[in-house]
Amino acid sequence: xxxxxxxxxxxxxxxxxxxxxxxxxxxxxxxxxxxxxxxxxxxxxxxxxxxxxxxxxxxxxxx
Length: 63
Prior knowledge:
Elements lengths: L7 H14 L4 H8 L3 H10 L2 E4 L4 E4 L3
Antiparallel strand pairs: 1-2
């Protein structure tokens, strides 16, 4: 299992960087990094972010 930061801001930065630099989708990121998709979604949703497939990034949920 890949290291996942516990701080929501660090988690957001970590995941978005991986998505930008290496993965074509959030699902691919989760599969390749062996991380729980729902765990990340829940943590970032609680911090006010949602995954935007068109941008392949987590963005503010109200955007």
